[in-house]
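TA notes, week 10

Several of you asked for a full example with nothing omitted. So below is the full record: structure tokens for the whole chain, then the designed sequence directly under it. When grading your own attempts, check the secondary structure regions first.
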């Protein structure tokens, strides 16, 4: 109470970034890593998702690293890291396969004199 015995009209200061009970530091980054890893692995299986898979896998790896730096050591971080690596591999293989197929088709149509695709 203040000196003049009137109640203080302002509530006591509370830190707006106070940790939420039950939530560990880095848990959000670990969950984000897991989500990105799942999406990267699923899209990496399909050849058309190669570029998107590579981007999501890179984001997942960065989030897993961030969660580790923040001290989170749960299975979510590990699963996100592993799935991001799998998505990175699948995405890279899919992207290389698409480039190789495009090059082979280009050579085939060029060598056989078919100008339908090249005139567009």
């Amino acid at each position: 109470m203040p000196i003049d015995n009137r109640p203080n009209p302002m509530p006591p200061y509370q830190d707006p970034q106070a940790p939420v009970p039950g939530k560990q530091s880095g848990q959000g980054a670990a969950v984000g890593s897991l989500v990105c890893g799942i999406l990267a692995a699923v899209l990496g299986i399909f050849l058309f998702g190669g570029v998107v898979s590579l981007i999501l896998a890179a984001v997942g790896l960065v989030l897993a690293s961030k969660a580790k730096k923040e001290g989170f050591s749960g299975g979510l971080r590990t699963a996100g890291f592993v799935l991001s690596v799998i998505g990175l591999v699948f995405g890279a293989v899919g992207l290389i396969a698409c480039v190789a197929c495009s090059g082979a088709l280009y050579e085939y149509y060029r060598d056989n004199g078919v100008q339908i695709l090249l005139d567009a």
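Residues 27-93 form one domain. Use that as a sanity check on your answer.
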